[in-house]
Design brief:
Elements (H helix, E strand, L loop, with lengths): L2 H14 L7 H12 L4 H12 L2 H7 L3 H15 L4 H16 L12 H18 L10 H49 L2 H14 L4 H13 L3 H14 L4 H13 L3 H14 L4 H13 L3 H15 L3 H6 L2
C-alpha cells in the first residue's frame, strides 16, 4: 500500500474525524479532492471495504485481530477480492482508525506498518526539534507558540466538522431525491424524474449514475438531444460504462444518425465483448444503412448470446 495514500487517509481523519471513513459516499467525495484522482487501486479497495462495513467493525471491535480476519473473509467471499489485497486494505484501515501495526497476511512483514509509524514519528520530531545551529527560544515564547498552534488546530477541526456535517446532510438529501426519482421513472413520470435527478446533480455534479438516469428519462420523453448530452457527461465521468455508450447509441439511432450510433455500439462491445444488446442494436443500425452482411453477423452474435433471434430471422429472409 502506497505510504502517500496512508498519509492522505491520516490527514482526512485528522481534519474530519474517523466517522468520515464510515460512509463510502462521503469518503469518496472528500478523497477525490485529497488524492486528485491518484491511487485508483487503493481508493477502490478502500471504498469497497467501507461499503461492507469494515471501517465500522474495526472501529468498534473488541478483539481487533479476530475482526480483521472476519473482514478479510468478507471482502474475499462477497466482493471476490484476493487475500493479499483484502488483507492490505484491512490492515491500513486498522492502522488509520486504531493505530494497529500488525500485519494480517504474508503480503508484508509485520514490521512494514511499524516502520511507517516510526517514520511518521521521526518526521513529526524533525518538525518539532530545532536544528543544532538555531537559537533556543525562552519558555514563555514556546508556550505562546504552542497556544497559537493549538488555537489554529481547534479552528481547523471545528471548520472541518461543520463542513463534514453539511456534506453528510447534503449526501443524505441526494440519496432521498435519487430514490424519489427512480420511483417516478418506474411510474412513468419521466418529467418528474428529470426534475428530481437534476436536483441530485446540483448537489453532486460528479454523480455519473444520476446523469445516466436523467438521460434515460429524457430519452423516454423523446428529447434525444438532451439525452445525448447527459449520456456524454456520464461517459466523461465513467469512461468504462458500456451501458452509457449503448444507450447513447440508441439515442443517436432515434435521430437517424446511424453512423454515430454504430460507433457507440462498437465502443460498448469493446468494453464488454458479451454485450448482446449492443450487438443487436448495432445489427439494426447496419440494416438501416443496408449493410446486410455486417447486420447478419451482429444479428447472429446477438442470437447466440441472448437467445433472441428475431433480428437474425428478419435479415435472413
Amino acid at each position: 500500500m502506497e505510504k502517500d495514500f496512508i498519509n492522505v487517509l491520516q490527514k482526512l481523519v485528522t481534519e474530519y474525524g474517523k466517522d468520515v471513513l464510515l460512509n463510502a459516499k462521503i469518503a469518496k467525495h472528500l478523497l477525490a479532492d485529497y488524492t486528485q484522482n491518484e491511487y485508483k487501486r487503493e481508493l477502490d479497495l478502500l471504498l469497497t471495504a467501507i461499503e461492507i462495513g469494515a471501517a465500522k467493525e474495526i472501529t468498534n471491535a473488541g478483539d481487533l485481530t479476530a475482526c480483521k480476519k472476519a473482514q478479510i473473509r468478507e471482502l474475499m467471499e462477497k466482493k471476490f477480492i484476493n487475500e493479499t489485497a483484502a488483507a492490505e486494505i484491512i490492515d491500513v484501515l486498522a492502522f488509520v482508525l486504531r493505530g494497529d501495526i500488525s500485519a494480517s497476511a504474508e503480503y508484508q512483514s509485520p514490521q512494514q506498518l511499524s516502520d511507517y509509524s516510526q517514520t511518521q514519528a521521526q518526521n513529526a520530531e524533525s518538525n518539532t526539534f530545532a536544528p543544532k545551529n538555531s537559537q533556543p527560544q525562552n519558555t514563555a515564547a514556546k508556550f505562546k507558540i504552542v497556544g497559537v498552534v493549538f488555537a489554529i488546530l481547534c479552528l481547523l477541526a471545528l471548520g472541518g466538522y461543520v463542513y463534514y456535517e453539511h456534506y453528510k446532510a447534503e449526501a443524505d438529501k441526494a440519496d432521498k431525491l435519487f430514490e424519489q426519482a427512480l420511483n417516478a421513472g418506474e411510474r412513468g413520470d419521466y418529467q418528474v424524474a428529470v426534475n428530481l435527478f437534476s436536483q441530485v446533480i446540483a448537489i453532486d455534479p460528479k454523480d455519473a449514475v444520476a446523469y445516466y438516469n436523467r438521460a434515460y428519462a429524457y430519452a423516454k420523453l423523446k428529447n434525444y438531444d438532451q439525452a445525448i448530452k447527459d449520456y456524454t457527461k456520464a461517459i466523461a465521468l465513467d469512461p468504462k460504462n458500456a451501458s452509457a455508450y449503448n444507450s447513447r447509441g440508441i439515442a443517436y439511432k432515434e435521430l437517424q444518425n446511424y453512423d454515430q450510433a454504430i460507433e457507440d455500439y462498437t465502443k460498448a462491445i469493446e468494453l464488454d465483448p458479451n454485450y448482446a444488446f449492443a450487438y443487436y442494436n448495432r445489427g439494426i443500425a447496419y440494416a438501416e444503412l443496408r449493410n446486410y452482411d455486417q447486420a447478419k453477423k451482429d444479428a447472429k452474435k446477438a442470437c447466440d448470446l441472448l437467445g433472441e433471434c428475431e433480428l437474425w430471422n428478419r435479415v435472413n429472409r
